[in-house]
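Agenda item 2: adenosine monophosphate complex prediction
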Amino acid sequence: MRLIILGPPGSGKGTQSDIIKEKMELEKLSTGDLLRSEINKESPVGLEAKQFMDKGELVPDAVMIDILGIYIDKFEKEGKGYILDGFPRTKPQAEALMKMLKEKNAPLSAAILVDVAEEKVIKRLTNRWTCKNCQAIFNYLDGLPKDEKCSKCGGKLYQRSDDKKETIINRLKVYKKNTEPLIEYFQQNDLLVTVSGEGNIESIMENIIKLLEK
Ligand code: AMP
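Presented output:
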C-alpha cells in the first residue's frame, strides 16, 4: 500500500495518518515533522526551511523532492508500504513523486483528501498544542493534559510558531494556490478518495478505511 494524504493545514491529516500507519502497518513520512526535527537539530536543511515555515510559505520544491527521494528509495528497498503526510504540496512535487514511483514500478494506491471547512481549520489551529517529543496533537478547548505534558509520552507541549493567526491565514492561502489543484490532478489519475474531516477521529478513520477497502 502506497498512500498520500492531502488536506488543508489543520484538517487532521497528521492524526489520521498516524492511525492509518498503525492499523495498516505502514511506514509514515510527515515532511512537516521531518523539517521541524531538522530545525531542532539546527542542520543546514532545518535552517533553510525555518525561514519559509515561520512565514507559512512552502519550502522550495527542489529541497523537498530530494528529501522525499531518499525516503521513497528506503521504503521501496525495504519492501514496506507507506503513507506520506504533507507531500506532495505542489504540482511539481506531485509529478516528481509519480515519476519516481513509475520508475520503480511501484504504483500509488490512493490519494486521501481530508475535507474540512476553512473556519473550522482556523479554530483548530489557533487552539492546537503539539508535543515537542512525539508530535502528538492536543486541542486547548478540550483541556490540555496535566502540567501541559503529553499524555502519550510525557513530552512538553508547545504551540507551533506557524500556528499564529496571521501565519495560519497565509498557510491557507498557500494551500489554496499550490495544493488544492492537486485534488483535480489525483482525481484525473483516478486515485482520489475524499472523506469529510469533520466529526470524531474514530468515525473519520473508519470512513477512510472503508473507502480504501473499496
Ligand atoms: P505541516 O506540518 O505539514 O503543516 O508543515 C509545516 C510546514 O512545513 C509547511 O507550512 C511548509 O512550510 C513546510 N512543508 C512541509 N511539507 C512541505 C512540502 N511538501 N513542501 C513544501 N513545504 C513543506
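Discussion summary: The chain has a mean pLDDT of 95.
Owner for follow-up: CH.
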